[in-house]
Write a structure and sequence with these properties.
- With about 60 residues, the protein is mainly alpha-helical.
- Helices cover about 85% and strands about 0% of the residues.
- The chain contains two helices and no strands.
- The protein has helices spanning about 5-10, 15-60.
Length: about 60
């Protein structure tokens, strides 16, 4: 996502306290995304490990 000129001007007008709040907000969003990504990755890995086993069981039961 690109920062527009208007957004650059708004960011340059922040005082120190506002900048710290924006940085903390961005860090919080980053952490939330990291946690969600980790959960999705673990669930995907688990499904990837279970599905082949189930498929092999179904194939072997049909023989």
């Amino acid at each position: 996502m690109m920062i527009t000129e208007r957004q650059k001007i708004e960011l340059s007008n922040f005082n120190k306290k506002q900048c710290e709040a924006v940085i903390a907000f961005g860090a919080d969003l980053y952490r939330q995304g990291l946690v969600k990504g980790t959960i999705i990755g673990i669930v995907g890995f688990g499904i990837g490990m279970i599905i082949p086993y189930i498929v092999n069981e179904i194939k072997s039961s049909r023989k």
